[in-house]
Amino acid sequence: MDTDSLLESFRSRQETKKAESTADTYYRTSKKWAEWLANPGAKDYDQNNRDRPSKELWEATTADIRVFLRYQLESGLTGGTVRNRRWAITTLYQELDEMVEEGYGIPSFENPAEDLDISDWQDLKNIGKKKKELKEVYYLEPKDVKKLSENAPSPKLRNELIIRLLYQTGLRRGELAETRLKDVDTDERAINVHAAKTHLNRTVYYQPTLDTLLKRWMNVERKSLVTAGSEYLFPTYKTDQITGKQISRTVRKAADAAGLQSHVYTNAAGHKQMKVTAHVLRHSFAVQSLKNGMDTRTLQKLMGHAKIETTERYLRLAKTDVRDSARKYGAGSE
Fold first, then answer.
1. Which CATH architecture has domain 142-324?
2. Which pick of 130, 196, 236, 254 has the fewest CB atoms within 10 Å?
3. What is the pLDDT of residues 262-294, one digit of tens each?
């Protein structure tokens, strides 16, 4: 499907969920975004970016969105308008994610809006309490991750392994979906990651506690599938590769069954955000690693963050937990 047809489908889908004016605004913003991706340096204020490659919507990275929104500010738009454009682009990728599942002919992609953080921009600091609430980072304690994995839906072994790998490696759901058998080194307990989102290829590591589960999956259950010939670590019963959307559903089902799920907020795009998601396991990996004593530079490399500031946002959460534990369990509290 060509980009114009894709965007028309996006507008039609939005018209069933939102007011016509909102759907039209989201469509126009998405069209501007698609044109910017396809035509480097086309605008006067974008001349410094003329050397970047032309891209399709599903090839965009988080860095691309940041650059695009920054140029919107530089072109004279207000912080509020740029925030609205950010939500329009976020909504676009949520819809595209669903359209991949529905067979629209879009290749599987890693959502570039998922890790987008523009909280450091002075132009956008005047946000209300509700907007601040949207930036809250949620994570699970180890006991809750254990409870989550124990409540993995069927096929239980595969889905328990997915949950525990997400937590132990900090992988994004799309990165895990893209992992191939050849990327896994069971001797080193390492997984090579080809990061389409940031282009920062890296290696992550899992713990010995996953040895038995992973070997049983690779050597027994996976080999029993009709899709066993797939190059991917996680084929499904019907397809050669699991999708990020399926991984998300797996985590949500496990959270529901474990009694850990709750509705956190409804964002500006009208989408309900649940507390426990696949990405929350990535947050949980980061916070627990810092609490265990890992330095931020090492964590940055493991998570594939382009900027150390993105990694350092987890420090506040880790330090808060240490403070609360000291107050509750420290000497003198008895």
1. Orthogonal Bundle (1.10)
2. 130
3. 876 555 445 566 789 999 999 999 999 999 999
- The domain limits of the chain are 3-123, 142-324
C-alpha to C-alpha distances, 267 to 3, 38, 49, 231, 273, nearest whole angstrom: 26, 28, 31, 37, 7
CB 242 within 8 A of CB 249: no
Q: Which residues are catalytic?
A: 172, 197, 279, 282, 305, 314
Distance from C-alpha of 35 to C-alpha of 191, rounded to nearest angstrom: 36
Q: How many helices (H) and strands (E) does the chain have?
A: 13, 5
> Which pLDDT does position 310 carry in this prediction?
83
Strand ranges inside the chain, DSSP E:
184-185, 190-193, 202-205, 263-266, 272-274
Using a cut of 0.70, tell me whether the model's pTM lies above it.
Answer: no
The tens digit of pLDDT for each residue in 194-226 reads: 865 555 689 999 999 999 999 999 999 999 999
State how far the Cα of 13 lies from the Cα of 89, in Å rounded to an integer.
14
